[in-house]
Amino acid sequence: QVRLVESGGGLAQPGGSLRLSCAASGFTFSNVAMSWARQAPGKRLERVSGIGADSSDTYYLGAVKGRFTISRDNAKSTVYLQMNSLKPEDTALYFCIKHRGGGIDDPSDFRGQGTQVNVSS
Predict the structure, then answer these.
(1) How far is it, in rounded angstroms, from Cα 109 to Cα 121?
(2) DSSP string, 74-105
(3) What does the buried/exposed string (b/e) look like for 59-69 if buried means 16 or more CB atoms within 10 Å of the residue's CB?
(4) Are strands 115-119 and 92-99 parallel, antiparallel or unpaired?
(5) Which single residue of 8, 76, 83, 96 could bond 112 by disulfide (Cβ 3.0 to 4.6 Å)?
(6) 23 bridge partner residues
């Protein structure tokens, strides 16, 4: 069955960095786009970043553009989110999301359990 296991969350200071990883299994990873989304307490889920199946297309939420970088390693069935210059408003539960097809605008159909990111001094 489909599994998405996120890791790498934790506590970071403002201006610090974290690298999230999402290990995927149960489907052909290289055929589908992947995304990261986050949900802060009391707020809606929002997509932070996405990457196409062949890494040719990427998407970034305006609030993270220039600070976050998404990448994937199809040989390892893993997608990453490098988060730099973290801000307190980046505090949220971060989810790894699988899309149905290879494009970043294809519908999503599965998400992981999430990894918590807290940014605080």
Answers:
(1) 36
(2) TTTTEEEEEE-S--GGG-EEEEEEEESSSSTT
(3) bbeeebeeebb
(4) antiparallel
(5) 96
(6) 5, 78
Residue 53, amino acid:
A
Alpha helices in 11-97 (DSSP H): none
Q: Tens digits of per-residue pLDDT, 23-73?
A: 999 999 999 999 999 999 999 999 999 999 999 999 999 999 999 999 999
pLDDT tens readout for residues 3-25? 999 999 999 999 999 999 999 99
HSE-CB at 36 with a 13 A cutoff on CA atoms is 34
Q: Are 92 and 73 in contact (CB under 8 A)?
A: no
Which H helix or E strand runs over 43? none
Q: For position 21, what pLDDT does the model report?
A: 98
Whole-angstrom CA distances from 50 to 13, 55, 59 are 25, 9, 5
Q: Which bin fits 113, alpha (ψ -120 to 50), beta or left (φ > 0)?
A: alpha
Report pLDDT digits (tens) over 57-69.
999 999 999 999 9
